[in-house]
Design a protein that fits this description.
mainly beta, three-stranded antiparallel sheet, two-stranded antiparallel sheet, 9% helix, globular
Length: 68
């Protein structure tokens, strides 16, 4: 049984990172680190497709504090 996998590319510089994903892998707000550009960015991965997370570095309860 052969599983297909991919290494996630860095969204900033495009270099392959050391993070490997399978088709059934789901990552939500995963801190992806690139060794080449030394950057860390939050990403979501579903069905081997990566998108940048919407809320970067925002604590979960921060929206309610801003409304008051």
């Amino acid at each position: 049984m052969v599983k297909t996998f991919r290494f996630i590319p860095c969204p900033i510089c495009g270099t392959q990172t050391n993070t490997k994903v399978l088709p059934e892998t789901i990552l939500i707000r995963y801190p992806l680190f690139c060794e080449k550009c030394r950057q860390e960015i939050l990403v979501d991965v579903v069905k081997m497709k990566m998108v940048l997370s919407d809320a970067e570095d925002e604590p979960a309860g921060d929206e309610e504090a801003q409304k008051e």
